[in-house]
């Protein structure tokens, strides 16, 4: 009996130790580079990009994540002087905590349903919209006098959902280039404490009861500046601070903050989203939208089969200058069978550029091969396919009476075929055959 109890005790202790290691696991970066590379994490263990509910992730290097990032319960720490770029949406919930001492850049939207704190020396820039959910989950700065500052920039709008509150403290600088709104639930607190500085390029519109817009800067500079009105904040005990200024007031009385706001708005494009639209039978439709465009020229759409090596497949002209939502789309009429990746790149008028999030697409259309260029110069052709060959590919070039003029075996499509004896002007047939696929393509030689 005593032996059985000892064994049971050891089993309980082992279980507790296992749970401690499982639920308290820490991840620490070890090199600069991609989040998904095992060599960039101590021990080679990569934190999950979705659903992680335990442990601590320490960003001590400059990392880039080309995907959406969401977690609940875990803690994310970004060290001073280090940067995390998330090329996608960012979402936290549950008991999660984010502590930003360095830099966090989010190229799409952010949903903050857990503690999100920016400390002096920290900087967060969100290129889409931000939603604060359910509590005082967004806190910028501390009570320490600046510098350094804690910076928070939203290129789109900021929305309070289920009474999500925002607190701007003494050493905080905030710039929101869209509007500040709520979902009508009520009880939202937007608080600017003494020393905090906020610029909203549009207005504030709160519709729920008990909402409070508070500015504790009692003397000039006001610390709260709006380039639009405060509307609808009158229901059931809602209050609005009297001490606030306009953009003109900010520009005339608070030059250092004005210069900072202007420096934060220089990017040519604020992207709201980039995603795949509903599948079309024989093509892939991509959709995206911008909230802001400044001196912007055009988009480049790039495609990849592995998510690493991309090639340009199209360009789409931008609007140029806009502060309203602009929607765009592109239809890829020659998509790749199976899984492929699309990436969006913005090009400014001065040639500067920026990459946005990567979209993965699974396409199940018909397999096809084309010849490029057509007409050809007779010395070479390129085979372009929307699928990867599972076996060797036999390529034949025939004249109009069926004589084989050139024959070659290649390992895959998307290859250049150099023709040994240059073809004379006329019409030829290119016959392509591989496991489960065959096609004859008519080619003209000039």
Automatic annotation (TrEMBL):
What superkingdom does the record give? Answer: Bacteria
Q: Does the keyword Signal apply?
A: yes
**Signal peptide (UniProt feature, chain positions):** 1-24
Q: Which UniProt keywords apply?
A: Signal
Pfam families attached to this UniProt entry: Por_Secre_tail
Where does the Secretion system C-terminal sorting domain lie? Answer: 372-441
Q: Which InterPro entries does the UniProt entry name for this protein?
A: Ig-like_fold, Secre_tail
NCBIfam families referenced in this protein's UniProt entry, alphabetically: Por_Secre_tail
Q: What is this protein called?
A: T9SS type A sorting domain-containing protein
State the organism named in the record: Chryseosolibacter indicus
């Amino acid at each position: 009996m005593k032996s059985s109890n000892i064994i049971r005790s050891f089993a309980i202790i082992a279980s507790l130790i296992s749970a401690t290691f499982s639920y308290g696991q820490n991840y620490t970066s070890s090199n600069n580079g991609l989040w998904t590379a095992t060599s960039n994490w101590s021990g080679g263990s990569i934190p999950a990009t979705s659903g992680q509910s335990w442990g601590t992730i320490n960003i001590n290097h400059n990392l880039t994540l080309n995907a959406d990032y969401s977690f609940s319960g875990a803690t994310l720490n970004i060290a001073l002087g280090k940067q995390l770029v998330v090329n996608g949406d960012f979402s936290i919930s549950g008991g999660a905590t984010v502590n930003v001492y360095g830099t966090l850049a989010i190229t799409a939207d952010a949903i903050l349903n857990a503690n999100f704190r920016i400390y002096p020396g920290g900087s967060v820039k969100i290129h889409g919209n931000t939603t604060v959910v359910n509590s005082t989950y967004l806190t910028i700065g501390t009570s320490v006098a600046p510098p350094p500052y804690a910076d928070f920039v939203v290129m789109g709008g900021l929305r309070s959902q289920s009474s999500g509150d925002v607190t701007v403290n003494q050493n905080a600088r905030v710039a929101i280039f869209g509007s500040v709104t709520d979902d009508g639930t009520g009880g939202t607190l937007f608080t600017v404490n003494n020393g905090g500085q906020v610029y909203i390029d549009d207005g504030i519109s709160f519709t729920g009861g008990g909402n409070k817009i508070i500015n504790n800067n009692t003397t000039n500079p006001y610390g709260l500046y709006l380039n639009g009105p405060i509307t609808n904040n009158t229901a059931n005990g809602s209050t609005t601070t009297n001490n606030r200024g306009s953009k003109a007031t900010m520009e005339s009385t608070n030059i250092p903050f004005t210069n900072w706001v202007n420096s934060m708005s220089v990017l040519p494009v604020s992207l709201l989203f980039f995603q795949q639209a509903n599948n079309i039978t024989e093509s892939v439709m991509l959709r995206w939208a911008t909230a802001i465009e400044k001196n912007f020229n055009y988009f480049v759409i790039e495609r990849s089969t592995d998510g690493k090596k991309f090639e340009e497949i199209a360009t789409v002209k931008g609007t140029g200058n806009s502060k309203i939502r602009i929607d765009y789309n592109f239809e890829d009429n020659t998509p790749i069978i199976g899984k492929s990746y699309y990436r969006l790149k913005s090009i400014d008028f001065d040639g500067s550029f920026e990459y946005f999030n990567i979209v993965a697409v699974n396409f199940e259309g018909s397999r096809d091969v084309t010849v490029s260029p057509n007409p050809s110069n007779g010395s070479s052709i390129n085979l372009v396919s929307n699928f990867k060959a599972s076996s060797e590919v036999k390529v034949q070039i025939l004249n109009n009476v069926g004589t084989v003029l050139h024959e070659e075996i290649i390992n895959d499509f998307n290859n250049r075929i150099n023709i040994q004896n240059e073809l004379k002007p006329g019409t030829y047939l290119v016959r392509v055959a591989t496991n489960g696929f065959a096609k004859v393509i008519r080619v003209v030689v000039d």
